[in-house]
Amino acid sequence: MDSLIPFTTSGSLVDCVDRKMLVVLRDGRKLHGVLRSYDQFANLVLEDTVERIYHGNAFAENFHGLFLIRGENVVLLGEIDLDLEDEIPHRRQVDYTALEPYHKNDVETKKQREELKAQILYEKKGFCKEGGEGDGY
C-alpha cells in the first residue's frame, strides 16, 4: 500500500535524473539542461545548461555548461519533450547579444510594474510589501 503513495519530497526527482529539464528560477531565468544530480534540499546540478531569453517572437540561448542551482531558487522544474523541443511554434532563434538589451528592458519594465502594484496594494488595501514586515517565516 505504501508503494502507491507518491513522493512529495525531493525523492520524487529520481525519475528525472539524466533527462533534459527546464528550470525556472525565482529571478525569472529559464534554464535548459540535463539533470545530473540533486540532494534532499532540491539543490540541482544541470549539465550542458543554456539560459534561454525571449522577446516578442524571438528567443536566444546563452551556453553556461555545468550549473549548480540552490533548491530554494527553483520555482518550476519540468521535463522537456525531446521530440517537440525543436518545434517552437512562431518563434525564431537569434543571436544572444542582439536580443539581450531587449530582454533586459523587458525585465526592468516588469520589475517597475511589480513595484507599482505592490505600492498600490500597500496604500489602498493594507498589504505589506514583499520582503517587508510580516513577510518572514
From TrEMBL:
GO biological-process terms attached to the record: deadenylation-dependent decapping of nuclear-transcribed mRNA; mRNA processing
Subcellular location(s) of the protein: Cytoplasm; Cytoplasm, P-body
Keywords: Cytoplasm, mRNA processing, Ribonucleoprotein, RNA-binding
GO cellular component: Lsm1-7-Pat1 complex; P-body; ribonucleoprotein complex
Transmembrane spans: none
Domain Sm: 8-83
Keyword Chloroplast: no
GO molecular function: mRNA binding
PANTHER family: LSM1, U6 SNRNA-ASSOCIATED SM-LIKE PROTEIN LSM1
Assembly, per entry: Component of the heptameric LSM1-LSM7 complex that forms a seven-membered ring structure with a donut shape.
Entry's family note: Belongs to the snRNP Sm proteins family.
Protein name, as recorded: U6 snRNA-associated Sm-like protein LSm1
Gene name linked to the record: LSM1
